[in-house]
Amino acid sequence: MRNETALGLAEARGPWARVLRSVLYTALFMVFAGPLLALMVGAFTPTVDPTQFTLWPDRLSLDNLERAVDRNVLDYLLNSFLVVGGGLALQVLVSAFAGYALARKRFRGSAVVLVLILATMMLPEEVLAVPLSVLLADLPLLHVSLVGSLVGMIVPVAAWGFSILVMTEFMKEIPKELEESARLDGAGEFRVFWQVVLPLCRPALGVIGIFGFTMIWDQYMLPLLVATDPAQFTLPLALRSLRSDDQVGIGVLLVGAFLAMLPSVLAFLALQRSFIRGLTSGAVKG
């Protein structure tokens, strides 16, 4: 039986082919994972030379971490966790309800609503910066200002067009017979959504969870518009501030960059199964 690779080429056999594959895989690993490993090693190396690339330090130390703590890096990290926790929870909730309405309900103008949601994904952050800052300074109807608070960083990310689109397309593939059976058993609208439809959307929830976490965690423009005091900085914004400080060494910046990278990696590892199922699912089979 002939085995083919993802490129459609016949898989070579023999000892030289195995050696060639090992060399290729090692090279790919060094290209993609090498900088991350160098970042981790540099963060815990006492003396860091930014011009040298090393994966094998002479000695590991927590000196850079201690100096980073003195620079309030952990406080910035906590702010980032608060923003991403509140923002992601709201984003998943809004995306699930919006996707259910657009996928399972028929109402006039649903196509227009979906087009408008997609249109929001085409606008860069720089275009939205000015109107967003005006809205946050004077929230319509409520007439309150969210500038200078973490809430002002959470509310704008509560709805994201990409997450709504993923949930909408995934929910369209769920057989309607499941809902009809639940309604015949006396289930109400909310119970159908919560106990029938939403459990089948776990792969899609994994996808929007990873992408939503990364999107919120990497936000730079939004904290820049909202924060009025360094105590309100999130970690990505704080790294830019630390970089402009001549008294901060490269080791502190590497520790901050490592702490900024680590949560995204852990989030992907925690949700990778649902993420892969969500990307490969073309339909849901009851």
UniProtKB/TrEMBL annotation:
A Pfam family the protein falls into: BPD_transp_1
User: Keyword set for this entry?
Assistant: Cell membrane, Membrane, Transmembrane, Transmembrane helix, Transport
- Membrane-related topology note: Multi-pass membrane protein
The UniProt transmembrane annotation reads 23-44, 81-103, 110-134, 146-171, 192-217, 248-271
Compartments it resides in: Cell membrane
Q: Does the keyword Cell membrane apply?
A: yes
Q: Which InterPro entries match?
A: MetI-like (IPR000515), MetI-like_sf (IPR035906)
ABC transmembrane type-1 domain segment(s):
77-271
Major localization class? membrane
Which protein family is it in?
Belongs to the binding-protein-dependent transport system permease family.
- This protein is called what? Carbohydrate ABC transporter permease
